[in-house]
Amino acid sequence: MTRPPPGLALGFHAVRTALEEHPRRVERLLLARGRRDQRTRRLVELARRSKVPFQQVPKDALDRLAGGVRHQGVAARLAGTELLTADELMERLPARPLVVVADGVTDPRNLGAIARSAAAFGADGLFLPGHRSAGLGPAAVRTAAGAFELLPVARAGNVGRLLERLDELGVEPVALDPAGGVAPWEAELAGGVAIVAGGEEQGVRRSVLDRCRVRISIPIREAVGSLNVSVAVGIVLADLARRRHETT
Fold first, then answer.
1. What is the C-alpha to C-alpha distance for residues 172 and 160, in angstroms, rounded to an integer?
2. Which parts of 145-189 fold into alpha helices (H)?
3. How far apart are CA 115 and CA 122, in angstroms?
4. Which of 56, 124, 208, 241 has the most neighbouring CB atoms within 10 Å?
């Protein structure tokens, strides 16, 4: 019997089982476009109950994802660790928290490296959007090298709305913006901080960038061009950890 690719549940039985018994490991529910039968509606109900994002995709996209395994028009992406809802993670945050928000980081190895830096420098959590994001599959888990055992991770849904809610809690959204901003050590950051890291090609999306009053640009030699997103996040986390250590 052909097994599904790692990090996937395929077919109605496997997907329903994942949503009913392991909803915290389901990153996203994928449905073939046009499916509206009773079994599909049941999966959507289960996803909504556990606040799992879901979307319709073309059938040929599911075919490619499944790699020849029968999928019946439904699939679920599974994380290598349990995921919290955004509400659950925000309820756990301490005073003056330090969190990372990944906005469109699509390379799982970069995501794993970000998580490893976040855990190493004492971040309180990592938020992932419901779409346009790498998942916590085998590649991310391997790169994180155990970081997901230390770092709470939550499904963020809409990043813009998440930043609004964090701001209401006194957590300042700080965007990594190579095109403009102050050096990390020049930014005035006294309270809680949410480091917003953008995708590998386009960076933080404009709609998200506009919600960040503070923007950070790491000074580097012009000939280098730019830094990998996981390296940039690590530099900023290290500087914030240094500041907090000096003030305790």
1. 13
2. 159-168
3. 11
4. 208
List per-residue pLDDT tens for the chain, 248 residues long: 467 778 889 999 999 999 999 999 998 899 999 888 899 999 999 999 998 989 899 999 999 988 888 999 999 999 888 899 999 999 999 998 999 999 889 899 999 999 999 999 999 999 998 777 888 888 898 999 999 989 999 988 789 999 999 999 999 999 998 888 888 888 888 789 999 998 877 888 888 999 999 999 988 887 777 788 999 999 999 988 888 777 66
Residue 85 in tokens = 């809802």
Angle formed at CA 62 by CA 145 and CA 86, multiple of 5 degrees = 50
H or E element, residue 114: helix 108-120
Question: Domain boundaries in the chain?
Answer: 8-78, 84-246
CATH number of 84-246: 3.40.1280.10
